[in-house]
UniProtKB/TrEMBL annotation:
It comes from Methanocaldococcus vulcanius (strain ATCC 700851 / DSM 12094 / M7). InterPro entries: DUF2118. Pfam families: DUF2118 (PF09891). This is DUF2118 domain-containing protein. It comes from the Archaea.
Length: 161
């Protein structure tokens, strides 16, 4: 699986790739490296995907962001507005085996990771909501520790015309 691309508004350290979001996320346009933009939309700059959690503060997205990822050979784009609440699900054990990856849709009660104890017992970390897994972070510690960032379905808005 390819590593997703993360685009963030007002990024300090960024690459040359840019995306323009117009009309509150209804129009998304990828710009060429040297292409300039002079409109009223927001410009998002590509940053390192592993820095995703730098733009999350107390479970809330601190800047507009766009994630471009591939699931099953199909490109998908998720636009997340500043102020969106994400669910953080920790998974800690002697051994942790993630079951889902970024871009996967999960249902309430769905298993996101298998947790093995030192004795060999297996438990599971489940999600309490329907949503999309946006990011999976491994936290350095003595025991294996992961955090799953999930965009709850109630935060996904489809606007009707």
């Amino acid at each position: 699986m390819k590593i997703p691309r993360l685009y963030v508004e007002n990024a300090e350290k960024h690459e040359n790739r840019k995306v323009v979001v117009e009309e509150d996320g209804k129009v998304i346009r990828f710009l060429d490296e040297e292409e300039e933009y002079c409109g009223e939309g927001k410009i998002l700059y590509q940053v390192i995907y592993d820095d995703f959690d730098n733009y999350i503060l107390m479970g809330t997205v601190s800047r507009d962001m766009l994630i471009e990822y591939e699931v099953g050979g199909i490109k998908q784009i998720t636009y997340i507005k500043k102020g969106t609440r994400l669910l953080e699900i920790p998974a800690e054990g002697y051994k942790v085996y993630p079951i889902v990856d970024f871009g996967c849709r999960v249902l309430e009660g769905h298993r996101v990771a298998a947790l093995q104890s030192k004795k060999g017992d297996v438990r599971f970390a489940n999600t309490p909501v329907n949503g999309i897994v946006l990011f999976l972070k491994e936290v350095p510690s003595k025991r294996e520790n992961y955090v799953f960032y999930i965009l709850p379905e109630k935060e996904i808005r489809f606007e009707e015309e």
